[in-house]
Here is the input.
Amino acid sequence: MADKKIMILVIAFKAEKTIRDVLSQISEDMWGKVSEVLVIDDASPDPDRTFEIALDYKKKENLKKLSVKKNICNQGYGGNQKVGFNYAFIKGYDIVAVLHGDGQYPAENLPQLVKPLEQERFHMVFGSRIQGDALMGGMPLWKYIGNRFLTVTENLLLGLSLSEYHSGFRAYSCRALRDVNLELIHNGFIFDTDIIIQFKENNYRIGEIVIPTHYDEKSHVIHFSLAAVVGFGILKSVVSYFFRKNLSRLK
Here is the structure.
């Protein structure tokens, strides 16, 4: 089996307090394995210095594999990932792993995340916080309850048995991503569910690994009101898929 060309996509927004630590937590072995680590600052507004701090880290550590870019306009949580995916397509990478710039996900688990894709056992792999102990890791109780409710509903309507749908610590086969219509996927937080729906529709295999949960004052946690809006959007997406699938069977 030929070696895979791997890119780590670090999505960042107002991450000046954490971006240096996130990059430093990528292991030396992982730096040796990957073709490129791409940080995309999603147009963080002044006076935030995420972009400048990432550039400074690149220079100080002499990291030739580290690229740092900044969007001219904010693309949103999902939109920023689309920018990174299209970059990976252009560069001809085989695997893209997504890491968050706020330090919420464990960079030290990247080798375990990409390994199943290197072995071609799955087309998407994500880190499950729920299989670990999310509450002990600081996940807010209301967020945990919402995660469990949505996951049960999503599994029921999509016919899957995933432990959660809302972890952003993911790795994808670029070949599979090319079959996904990114234009149909939400640019906001519904992105994580929308892309799973498209992988399901294309009969691509989705795997999970267990990861620790880490929430602190630096982590980006959306407010309850926005979370409720996102939750309804997620339900709309999965219900739409359910009826679309079942109506096509009746024709």
Summary: The mean pLDDT is 92.
